[in-house]
Backbone:
C-alpha cells in the first residue's frame, strides 16, 4: 500500500486555533456573521485574505459564505518564504488541518501540469507557507468532500501568470463539474490606513472590471504591496476566458479596524467573480 504524503499544518496555533473545536467555532462564527438571505453564488473564482483570523477572518468568512464551494478547488497563493520553485504545485497526498485531512486532487493537478509544463511539483515551496493553508478550514466547513490543488507563485512577471490563467481555464473548461479558483491575497502592507485604502481601491477597481493586465500594471506601477497579485492575475485571466461577466466586492477592511492602530495597517479585500 502506497504511503500518502501528508502535509502537517504550518501555522495552526498562530494564525488560527490549533484546537479542533476552537477552530470550528471561530471559523463558523465568521461564516455565520456573513450569511444572508441571498442565494449562494456559483462562482468561477474569488479572492480571500490570509492573515491571522483575528484580523482578516471576518473578510475571508464573508467570501466563503457567499459562494457555493464545489468538491474540487484550486488554491493559488503567493510564496512568502521564497523557498522552492517559482511555479510550485502539489500533485499527491493530503493536507492536514485541525479539522481533518484534505486530499490533493491528483487528477486535476496532472491535467494542469500537462497543460502548463512550467508547473513543477515542489513541497518545499508549500511546507512553511501559510497563504493556502489558512483558507482550508473555511472551505472544509462549507464542503466536507473537498479536494484541492495548491499552487504557490513566486514570480512578478506578467506572462507566466497569464499563461497559468489560460491553462487553468483550458483544463476547467474540459471538466464536467465546477472548479472554484481561490486566489489567496492580502492587500497593501504596512502603510497608514488612509494611504492603504486609497491604494487598495485602485487595485480593487481593476479587479472589479475583470482586468488582469490592469491589476498587474497598477500594483507594480504604483507601489501597491498586494502580496497575492500574482494569484489574482492568474485567477482573473482564467475567469475571463471561462466567461466571467462580473465581480463583487463582498467585504473590505484593514487590520486597523481590529487593532485600532491606523498608522501601519494591512488591507483585506474579499471578492467573488461570476
Residues:
Amino acid at each position: 500500500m502506497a504511503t500518502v504524503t501528508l502535509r502537517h499544518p504550518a501555522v495552526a496555533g498562530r494564525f488560527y486555533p490549533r484546537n479542533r473545536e476552537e477552530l470550528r467555532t471561530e471559523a463558523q462564527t465568521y461564516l455565520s456573521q456573513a450569511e444572508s438571505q441571498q442565494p449562494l453564488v456559483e462562482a468561477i473564482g474569488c479572492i480571500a485574505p490570509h492573515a491571522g483570523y483575528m484580523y482578516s477572518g471576518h473578510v475571508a468568512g464573508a467570501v466563503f459564505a457567499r459562494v457555493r464551494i464545489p468538491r474540487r478547488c484550486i488554491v493559488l497563493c503567493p510564496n512568502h518564504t521564497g523557498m522552492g520553485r517559482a511555479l510550485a504545485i502539489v500533485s499527491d497526498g493530503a493536507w492536514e488541518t485541525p479539522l481533518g485531512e484534505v486530499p490533493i486532487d491528483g487528477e486535476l493537478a496532472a491535467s494542469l501540469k500537462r497543460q502548463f509544463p512550467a508547473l513543477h511539483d515542489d513541497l518545499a515551496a508549500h511546507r512553511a507557507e501559510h497563504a493556502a493553508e489558512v483558507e482550508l478550514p473555511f472551505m472544509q466547513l462549507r464542503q466536507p468532500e473537498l479536494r484541492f490543488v495548491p499552487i504557490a507563485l513566486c514570480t512578478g512577471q506578467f506572462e507566466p501568470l497569464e499563461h497559468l490563467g489560460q491553462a487553468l481555464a483550458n483544463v476547467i473548461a474540459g471538466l464536467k463539474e465546477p472548479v472554484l479558483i481561490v486566489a489567496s491575497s492580502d492587500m497593501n502592507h504596512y502603510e497608514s490606513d488612509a494611504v492603504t485604502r486609497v491604494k487598495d481601491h485602485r487595485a480593487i477597481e481593476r479587479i472589479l472590471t475583470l482586468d488582469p493586465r490592469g491589476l498587474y500594471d497598477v500594483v507594480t506601477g504604483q507601489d501597491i504591496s498586494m502580496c497575492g497579485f500574482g494569484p489574482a492575475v492568474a485567477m482573473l485571466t482564467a475567469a475571463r476566458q471561462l466567461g466571467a461577466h462580473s465581480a463583487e466586492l463582498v467585504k473590505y477592511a484593514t487590520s486597523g479596524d481590529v487593532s485600532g492602530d491606523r498608522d501601519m495597517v494591512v488591507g483585506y479585500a474579499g471578492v467573488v467573480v461570476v
Q: What stands out?
A: Residues 100 and 171 are 28 Å apart (CA to CA). The domain at 29-273 is CATH 3.40.830.10 (Protocatechuate 4,5-dioxygenase; Chain B). The mean pLDDT is 96.
